[in-house]
């Protein structure tokens, strides 16, 4: 078009090279609190023997992305350990606190509640029960 400046080849190539990097940065840091459900188990997950989680204890099953706790009366609770902020798998349990490696969100492993932002949505609770001496977590409905 006449009268309109044409960008140089260098400007076009520089813009093209920077565009994917900027896009990845935004996508990697965008919160998952937009209502989209993070990944969670889709089939029953056999976590191990019933004796692995004592009364008052919490256990992280890293490979299955599940945390299980047992209260003082013996009742089990299980939560997906996929962070509700950006979908990162949580691999760190400090006592009863889960710490996400991506942005530092913290969750109570016994209740799933958010202890520290940026996450604002609790972890997804999974139905859990003991079947034939094994702890089995099921996907949420």
UniProtKB/TrEMBL annotation:
Residues 39-137 form the Rieske domain. It holds the Pfam family Rieske. InterPro entries: Rieske_2Fe-2S (IPR017941), Rieske_2Fe-2S_sf (IPR036922), Rieske_Fe-S_prot (IPR014349), Rieske_Fe-S_prot_C (IPR005805), TAT_signal (IPR006311). SUPFAM superfamilies: ISP domain. Gene3D superfamilies: Rieske [2Fe-2S] iron-sulphur domain. CDD domains: Rieske. Its cofactor is [2Fe-2S] cluster. The keyword Zinc-finger does not apply. The keyword Zinc does not apply. Keywords: 2Fe-2S, Disulfide bond, Iron, Iron-sulfur, Metal-binding. Iron-sulfur subunit of the cytochrome bc1 complex, an essential component of the respiratory electron transport chain required for ATP synthesis. The bc1 complex catalyzes the oxidation of menaquinol and the reduction of cytochrome c in the respiratory chain. The bc1 complex operates through a Q-cycle mechanism that couples electron transfer to generation of the proton gradient that drives ATP synthesis. This is Cytochrome bc1 complex Rieske iron-sulfur subunit.
